[in-house]
Amino acid sequence: MHLGIIGDDFTGSSDAANTLARGGLRVVQYAGVPSGPAERGVEAGVVALKSRTIAASEAVALSLGALDWLLAQGCRQILFKVCSTFDSTRSGNIGPVAEALRAALAARLGAGAAAMGPVLVCPAFPRAGRSLYQGHLFVADALLSESGMRDHPLTPMRDPDIRRWLGYQTQLGVGHVAASTVFAGADAIREGALAEAAANRPLVVVDAIRDEDLHAIGQAAADWPLLVGGSGIALGLPENLRREGLVPVRGPDADAWAGSRGRAAILSGSCSVMTRAQVRRHLADGAPGLEVSADEIVADGAGAVGRALRFVDDHPGPGEGGEGGNGAGGAAAGAPLVYTSADPSVVREAQARFGQERVAGAVEGFFAELARRLVAGGVTRLVTAGGETSGAVVEGLGLASLAIGPEIAAGVPAVRADGVGEAGGAGGGRPLWLALKSGNFGDERFFAQALDVLGQTVPEAGRPEARRP
Ligand SMILES: Nc1ncnc2c1ncn2[C@@H]1O[C@H](COP(=O)(O)OP(=O)(O)OP(=O)(O)O)[C@@H](O)[C@H]1O
Ligand SMILES: O=C(O)[C@@H](O)C(=O)CO
Fold first, then answer.
1. pLDDT digits (tens, 9 = 90+) for 127-138
2. Domain assignment of residue 423, given as a range
3. Given the CA of residue 387, which atom of ligand 2 is nearest to it?
């Protein structure tokens, strides 16, 4: 393994895995730190943590555990994958984790902080509309603070200046390499970042508005052990490994992929603008959907799970039946959806009544238990919307690792877990196909598209390109 990724949530981790797989690397996503060594042939390992919104000290401890494992697998460079909208609070967790990883890597390299070089920080992901200009983060044509992210249930983002926001979170100096330098290419970025580090500003926020900027940033950072960013910052990393002859030249998605047409369900705990549009579209298309409120879950979680299970059983989706399951396309579009996705004002009221942590824990516990029961009951295709929600589901199902399949939408691959519930739990040792969707990713038709892609079987080196609207 050459490249190690520490993801601060599960959807973000599959986003990074998708970028690296599309870049021609053999990638596996692990749910948490594996208990044994990686299988042979993995070139990039993504350790998915659920550390975005926990206490900073816990996030640091988990991330250092992931770092140890990745270094033991032979990784020479680590990417700390954070959200393309830099989701974090003023008091955590990106700064403390970046600082701790930098210190630990410096100690492991044995040459002190100087050997570390600058740590480039860039959340930009142009394919998903995230760009960074003059240190300010944009979501499409709006500043981060004027996008739907200002109302995020856990990490409302109300300051678009990433240099300032990161500065609140760290003792280290925060530098900046501006777009004018980035446009001049990898050597200029390198020089600019080294100058910032020499001026005691080792965390260097780098502007990027196009994929080519991110390729140049990746090239500039080829020798520096730590990077921090969205999946865009990973774009240039496979080429660095090829340039050194560490991995062969290989097309994107070179491996075969076998999907499933079995029973499907969609679980959505994301309250983002895009997820709510996807929920509305799914229902408008005539597909079955059950909204479950936070109040109901807090009052009687087991009862809410029971009601949701009955709903899924009563609405299995057209075309479904027995072993063959429901087909792709129109049939998949009718898959049952269970959602708590609610308007920001509804979320705020629930948080005021019960407290943010309690309501988030209850809702995530609901989805984890529902997923366990659905998979035990024969569901083989699951779409989950929301990073925290997806993390709760993957952890709840006890999945150890995920193979990366074709891309469904920018930043969202189809993934497969093998031998689910081998020890006798949910799944009975069968594979499970999933799409872990970040809150704001995909277009309105994402749910139907996801189920369609999860149902595809693609021969080697012949994957279809991502579905577009
Ligand atoms: N109706 C609700 N009331 C209060 N909180 C809710 C409600 N529905 C969901 N939540 C909580 O809101 C949070 C949503 O976070 P999640 O990460 O799943 O979605 P997201 O932030 O849109 O996705 P991403 O992190 O990928 O951008 C979860 O912790 C969830 O439990
Ligand atoms: O970078 C992103 O926006 C996503 O991969 C993510 O991390 C959302 O949870």
1. 999 999 999 999
2. 257-458
3. 9
